[in-house]
Design goal:
The protein has 396 residues and is α+β, with helices and mostly antiparallel strands. It has helices at 16-21, 41-50, 70-77, 125-135, 160-165, 173-181, 223-234, 244-253, 295-302, and strands spanning 11-12, 25-29, 32-37, 52-56, 61-66, 90-96, 102-112, 115-120, 142-145, 150-156, 187-194, 197-204, 213-219, 239-241, 309-315, 326-331, 334-347, 354-360, 370-375, 378-385. The strands form 4 sheets. Strands 11-12-13-10-4-14 form a 6-stranded mixed sheet, with helices on both faces. Strands 15-18-17-16-19-20 form a 6-stranded antiparallel barrel. Strands 6-7-8-5-9 form a 5-stranded antiparallel sheet, with helices on one face. It catalyses: N(6)-[(R)-S(8)-aminomethyldihydrolipoyl]-L-lysyl-[protein] + (6S)-5,6,7,8-tetrahydrofolate = N(6)-[(R)-dihydrolipoyl]-L-lysyl-[protein] + (6R)-5,10-methylene-5,6,7,8-tetrahydrofolate + NH4(+).
Length: 396
């Protein structure tokens, strides 16, 4: 995450004026000028865990793939088996290079039998769009970048459902039922009533915080009014605008990877513990294997010993590890030996102690292994723990 808000290349999203009106501190992220925080990182983090947070995700990329062979095109382009996804459902997947390295991690929504929406990370959106165009060229499918026309607002937290349902037109009980009964990793078209006007949205029940929540895809022109309506209606339920800092600490507690930290072009899904998303056994309708970009390299990687493994680290002291810090193995009577690198780290507001994710040597990846992190020249003790660090309480 960059922190220079004065970079003239950073784009302003459709909710930029709303963030200024709320007094947000802004920062550059993925080529966009985004809210880092509105009040305090801790307050915004706790609001999401205890009630709900409102996030502007309009910097994310939205790319539509449609046509008779849209599913086949995505099966070829991505590591997942997208043709097996039912309309109305979604799948987490990845775009990999021929060598198996990760170009981006994605969520793909199947909107209809012949229509998909691919959501990409902000900094990679243009690359993903270009790659999909190239990889779909041999198929009867159309790739259209919808990012300029689409705003994305997320409501995350245990009271998210109440807040989103309250937006539904009171005369349309079916849409309220759709929201309430929507499964995790599903989506549906829903109509909202905003200041007396009908707003058609794609609503998805996915998220990046470890909490229940919804994402609302809407045309950019209605986004500011929808944002203000959500804030006004959700305030009595504890809805709080939340920035990138809270989003990062929430996703870290939930053990969710961030591109550029846990995932990059030096990493395959297997090192990141995400080999399950790679479907090497994809077959077409006639039963023939589906060759996809990166398949051969990923098949070889699956059966080869890993050189590093992504793990969770819990600090036993108070000083947090940060991205880029070295993970070390203390040696009796000698200097500590570097055995890995921290990818993300911060104090955990929910758990009360510092946490981190790191790549380490495989022989040191077992739960309970005691290691250290070099925090500005001082070795801080840490222990390997399972991911995720936090799981939301089960609803009664």
């Amino acid at each position: 995450m960059t922190t220079d808000p004065t970079d003239p290349t950073d784009r302003q999203g459709p909710l930029h004026d709303e963030h200024l009106a709320l007094g947000a501190s802004l920062t550059g992220f993925g080529g966009w000028l985004m809210p880092l925080r509105y009040t305090s990182d801790l307050a915004e983090h706790r609001a999401v865990r205890e009630a709900a947070g409102l996030f502007d995700l309009s910097h994310m990329g939205e790319i539509e793939v449609s046509g008779p062979q849209a599913a086949a095109a995505l099966d070829h382009a991505l590591v997942g088996n997208l043709s097996a996804v039912a309309p109305g459902r979604a799948r987490y997947t990845m775009l990999c290079a021929e060598d198996g390295s990760v170009l981006d991690d994605l969520v793909v929504y199947r909107l209809a039998e012949d229509r998909f929406l691919v959501v990409a990370n902000a900094g990679n959106a243009a690359l993903v769009a270009r790659e999909l165009v190239a990889r779909a060229a041999a198929f009867d499918a159309v790739v259209a970048d919808q990012g300029e026309q689409t705003a994305l607002i997320a409501v995350q937290g245990p009271r998210a459902e109440e807040i989103v349902v309250a937006l539904v037109d009171p005369a349309d009980g079916a849409d309220a039922t759709t929201v309430r009964e929507m499964r995790y990793y599903a989506s549906s078209a829903v109509s909202f009533e905003v200041a007396g006007e009908r707003v058609d949205a794609l609503v998805a029940r996915t998220g990046y915080t470890g909490e229940d929540g919804f994402e609302l895809f809407v045309p950019v022109g209605v986004a500011p009014l929808l944002w203000r309506t959500l804030l006004a209606g959700g305030a009595p339920l504890g809805l709080t605008p939340a920035g990138l800092a809270a989003r990062d600490s929430l996703r870290l507690e939930a053990g969710m990877p961030l591109y550029g930290h846990e995932l990059d072009t030096t990493t395959t899904p297997f090192e990141a513990g995400l080999g399950r998303v790679v479907k090497l056994d994809k077959v077409s309708d006639d039963g023939t294997p589906v060759p996809f970009v990166g398949r051969d390299a990923l098949a070889a990687r699956k059966v080869s010993p890993p050189s590093r493994v992504l793990v969770g680290l819990r600090a036993t002291g108070r000083r947090p590890a940060r991205a880029g810090y070295g993970v070390v193995l203390p040696e009796a009577g000698g200097p500590a030996r570097r055995v890995g690198t921290v990818t993300s780290g911060a104090p955990s507001p929910s758990l009360g102690y510092p946490i981190a994710m790191a790549y380490v040597s495989p022989e040191l990846s077992a739960e309970g292994t005691e290691l250290g992190v070099d925090v500005r020249g001082r070795v801080e003790p840490v222990v390997v723990v399972p991911l995720p660090f936090y799981r939301r309480p089960q609803q009664s």
